[in-house]
Design brief:
Distance between the termini: 44 Å
Strand content: 5-15%
CATH superfamily of the largest domain: NAD(P)-binding Rossmann-like Domain
Order of helices and strands: EHEEHEHEHHEEHEHEEHEEHEHHHHHH
CATH topology of the largest domain: Rossmann fold
Number of helices: 15
Number of strands: 13
Shape: globular
Number of domains: 2
Length: about 350
């Protein structure tokens, strides 16, 4: 029988990759968003998750076998992040009709579970790397914890199974996404090539020299589906990364080569992208007009603040995948290939020249 899924945030980096994989596997798909978005094989469900009544009305006729929560709303403070994002999960799970058959709900959070929220990012006492799922919560307020608590409470009430998925920085395609390192770097490289500026690593010495990892959106989607369909993975939290590790001093050269640029080695000075790209909106509009690009608004493609947060960390960040590996999840994705595949898609969809 055909299974039915509700993908919350189906047009985002993670949600679109998840929807594409589920469509390949023959699932019937519903995609919830605040505005209707046309996606192949996805039936739109329009609702603002901050509005409990409207959410319940929009979901009244759905009884999905699986729900994938892949969205959040960034706020000005962690207290507001907690209030808004916990309410969104609560309104979603309260608004769904009670399951009449087995149901699985997957929640995507991230490594800020271990690193802390943006307000306290990488500060205080952090668990040792590689991060492992059994390492407890930090003694700080964190909207990921609030989202988890809403998930756990609804599961206890309604009897569905759950999984939590903690990716590192996600590589994938979505326009207007708040956290989008891959597209940000592609746009930055394009601007460097256009203006003759050096392709300068923007981050810290720790990130340039230390080991790190990342998560391709397709890799995350595969784990989401695996957890939904694997009984041993139910009611568990999982880290999810590509399976390789690298140093940015190597990856920076790989990305530069793809764009035909010379990489500028880190020289001990942090040069944030938010500063480097501050005056580039007009230049990008000129490039977009000349090349016939689909998106002339630089702010909808690049998120320099988020890339700076990741590449500016003063600590090494490496993630352990042993838990899901032991249970049978064996997918692997080389990170440089993930970047290159994204760049090809950006070019094919006329988002970069």
């Amino acid at each position: 029988m055909t299974k039915t899924a509700l993908v919350v945030g189906a047009s985002g980096i993670v949600g679109s990759a998840t929807a594409a994989l589920l469509a390949e596997e023959g699932w019937t798909l519903h995609g919830l968003a605040r505005r209707a978005v046309e996606q192949a094989g996805v039936q739109p469900v329009v609702a603002d998750l901050q509005d409990a009544d409207a959410t319940a009305a929009a979901l009244a006729d759905l009884n999905p076998d699986a729900v994938f929560i892949t969205t959040w709303l960034r706020q000005d403070s962690e207290a507001e992040n907690i209030r808004v994002n916990a309410a969104m999960v609560r309104n979603l799970l309260n608004g769904l009709p009670r399951p009449t058959a087995p149901r699985h709900v997957a929640l995507v959070t991230g490594l800020k579970h271990y690193l802390g929220p943006f307000e306290a990012y990488g500060k205080g006492t952090l668990p040792q790397t590689p991060f492992r799922e059994e390492q407890g919560r930090l003694d700080v307020e964190n909207f990921y914890y609030a989202q988890e608590d809403e998930l756990f409470a609804a599961a206890a009430r309604d009897g569905f199974t759950w999984s939590v998925h903690r990716p590192h920085t996600v590589i994938g395609l979505a326009v207007g996404n708040a956290m989008n390192m891959g597209t940000t770097l592609a746009v930055y490289a394009t601007l460097c090539r256009e203006t003759g500026r050096p392709f300068t690593f923007p981050g810290s010495a720790a990130q340039w020299s230390g080991l790190t990892d990342m998560t391709d959106a397709g890799q995350l989607a595969r784990q989401l589906l695996w957890a939904a369909e694997t009984e041993a993975a139910h009611d568990e939290a999982f880290n999810i990364v590509n399976g390789d590790v690298f140093r940015w001093q190597w990856m920076w050269g790989r990305i530069a080569e793809w764009f035909g640029l010379e990489p500028v080695p880190f020289d001990g000075v942090v040069r944030p992208l938010e500063e480097q790209m501050a005056g580039d909106a007009g230049v990008w509009r000129e490039i977009a007009a000349r090349e016939g690009l689909a998106e002339p608004d630089l702010a909808r493609l690049a998120s320099p603040w988020h890339t700076d947060a990741d590449l500016g960390r003063p600590i090494e960040v490496v993630t352990d995948m042993g838990k899901s590996r032991r249970l049978g999840f064996t997918a692997y994705q080389p990170t440089d290939d993930a970047f290159f595949a994204l760049f090809e898609r950006l070019r094919a969809e006329r988002l970069i020249p």
